[in-house]
Amino acid sequence: MAEQPKYLQVADTLRQEIADGIFRDGQTLMTEEELRMRFDVSRQTIRQAISLLEADGLVDRRRGSGTYVRHGPRRRQGIIHVGVITTFITDYIFPAIAQGMESVLNKNEAVLSLNAMYNDVKTERNILERMLEEPVDGLIIEGCRTALETPNRDVLARFAQRNIPVLFVNGYYPGMEHIPHVVMDDYGGGRLAARTALEKGYTKPAGLFKTDDLQGKERLNGFLDEMYTRGVEVPEERLLCFSTEERNDLADSVKGMALLDVLMKQEADCLICYNDIFAAQFMAKLQEKGMRIPEDLGIIGFDNADFSAMLQPALTTLGQPKNEIGAIAARKILRMIAGNREDSTIVDWTLIERDSLPKKAK
């Protein structure tokens, strides 16, 4: 702060006070003279600071009347710039989500600035800070390890202080449920996957879930609750919970080999996986070891990735409307940039039945 120009320091302090409710909508801000005396700066410095708040849409200067606090849309000129931060860009399901965003933004003379933080909180912080400096008109963020408290809460709070709308997609951080989000019903998806397996005659389910993001945590909770409701126990040895750091070569890890051993001994008759990537990985390992799928083991994944229908056997999976999720997110952020309030959207999964989870013969 000491290195910042004084007008930026004044603007940041007033932004924080407006965000904290010290100055409320419709209330007059202190006069220029009162602000000059409070901060011990020149009148020109105060005017520069107020101009920044005006650009942020936080105050309205009325000649002869004063400066009033208001939360309207930010002042902008020309093209709308929407920042997007996601875990990864080029692989798996996100290209389809980004395509859905871009199709809507292009029609509305808006451009998308796409950034990946590779599930790293420091990288996420650097990107957030850069977007505050530019700044963007709105932010869509997937979030990094969303089952955990984020150390970047303070930077995200600065978006609110600058009146830059934020929308979460695929998940949201603990304590930030109030921020609009577009997510799949992952808890319901976990219950649907478990219910499907049980109704097809499988009695000894195993589960494989990534638990440091909200999606995996909710899918696990839904899976376990459905099993509990139906009176089916899932012993600890039939559950593999892993983190971001453990995701690479999971099947060759100590945890992965322990679960593979359980499956090879046929102590479980189906495997419900966090997503299609891990379903394919474990399917290949089991087939290498001589297990017949689906004769010896049924498998179900999540996300309906492009490759899931090409596996042998083709993978039963839960599908999501990837393009539409991107389009919904883009439409919401554009309305938020225009000054409108938005509710969150939770999307249902669709069961896509293929060969990897047939109905078991009685």
Give a quick set of tags describing it.
362 residues, alpha/beta, six-stranded parallel beta sheet, 14 strands
Layout of helices and strands, plus pairs?
Layout: H1 6-19, H2 32-39, H3 43-55, E1 59-62, E2 66-69, E3 80-86, H4 94-107, E4 110-116, H5 121-133, E5 138-141, H6 153-161, E6 166-169, E7 181-184, H7 186-199, E8 205-210, H8 214-229, E9 239-242, H9 254-264, E10 270-273, H10 276-288, E11 298-303, E12 316-319, H11 322-337, E13 345-347, E14 350-352
Parallel strand pairs: 3-4, 3-5, 5-6, 6-7, 7-13, 8-9, 8-10, 10-11, 11-12
Antiparallel strand pairs: 1-2, 12-14
Helix pairs in contact: 1-3, 2-3, 4-11, 5-6, 7-8
Task: Characterise this structure.
Helix 8 links the parallel strand 8 and strand 9. The chain contains eleven helices and 14 strands. With 362 residues, the protein is α/β, with parallel strands linked by helices.
Q: In a few lines, what is going on in this structure?
A:
By secondary structure, this protein is α/β, with parallel strands linked by helices. It has helices at 6-19, 32-39, 43-55, 94-107, 121-133, 153-161, 186-199, 214-229, 254-264, 276-288, 322-337, and strands at residues 59-62, 66-69, 80-86, 110-116, 138-141, 166-169, 181-184, 205-210, 239-242, 270-273, 298-303, 316-319, 345-347, 350-352.
What is the tally of beta strands?
14
Strand order of the largest sheet: 4-3-5-6-7-13
How many helix segments? Answer: 11
Order of helices and strands: HHHEEEHEHEHEEHEHEHEHEEHEE
Q: Summarize the amount of helix as a percent range.
A: 25-40%
Biggest pleated sheet:
6 strands, parallel
Report low-confidence residues grouped into runs of 5 or more. Answer: none
